[in-house]
Amino acid sequence: MAESFQPDRLAADKAGRYRDLAAEIAAVLEGEPDLTARMATVSSMLRAAFEHFYWVGFYVVDRMRTDELVVGPYQGTLGCLRIAFSRGVCGAAARERRTVVVEDVDAFPGHIACDSRSRSEIVVPVLGPDGALLAVLDVDAETAGAFDAVDAEGLETILRATFAH
Ligand code: SME
């Protein structure tokens, strides 16, 4: 199934690309309940679909310390292992349960630079079927202003379809 995924066949425009990708992800993950497998697959397919996604992956709510995120499946350079809810863009998205778009990481107070090459990022909360926060998805780019409302909508739709049902 995954072998048939051909990113170059996705739509060229961004909104269409997210739409096509959502369908591909749903097809690959059909019948697979394991959360790690689902997160790993989403990370890999997002990275393959969007070349400017320099780092893409999940920070998962820690089971023991529920005010802390711990790194989950990701694609990219070495990520920080743990992020408290009180810190960084990931912490803000987890705390406020809303998507945070940062056009310039230097202008975001408390931004955590796991990799100094990251210039902009988007972090989207991941909710489970019961509405509880499971994780956040973090995507970083090497250029400023790489993410906008189309990315927010596209990623939120994929995450809802993948984790909230
Ligand atoms: N920049 C994020 C930390 C995670 S990484 O960049 C992979 C933040 O401020 O929460």
What does this structure look like?
The protein is an alpha+beta fold and 165 residues long. The chain has one domain (7-163): GAF domain (Beta-Lactamase, 2-Layer Sandwich). It has 4 helices and 6 strands. The protein has helices at 14-29, 35-49, 88-96, 149-163; strands at residues 55-61, 68-75, 82-84, 100-102, 120-127, 133-141. Strands 3-2-1-6-5-4 form a 6-stranded antiparallel beta sheet, sandwiched between helices. β1 and β2 (68-75) form a beta hairpin. α1 (14-29) runs parallel beside α4. The longest helix is centred in the N-terminal third of the chain and has 16 residues, at 14-29. The protein is globular, with a radius of gyration of 15 Å. Residues 55, 79-80, 83, 88-90, 111-112, 114, 118, 121, 138, 140 line the site of methionine sulfoxide (SME).
User: What do we call the CATH topology?
Assistant: Beta-Lactamase
Taken from the alpha-carbon principal axes, the silhouette is: globular
Class, according to the CATH hierarchy?
Answer: Alpha Beta
Number of domains: 1
* Strand segment tally: 6
Helix content: 25-40%
Number of continuous helical runs: 4
Give the full name of the CATH homologous superfamily. Answer: GAF domain
- Element-level helix/strand string: HHEEEHEEEH
Bound molecules: methionine sulfoxide
Round the mean pLDDT to the nearest integer and report it. Answer: 95
Terminal CA distance: 21 Å
Largest sheet: 6 strands, antiparallel
Q: What's the architecture, going by CATH? A: 2-Layer Sandwich
Radius of gyration: 15 Å
Within the largest sheet, what's the order of strands? 3-2-1-6-5-4
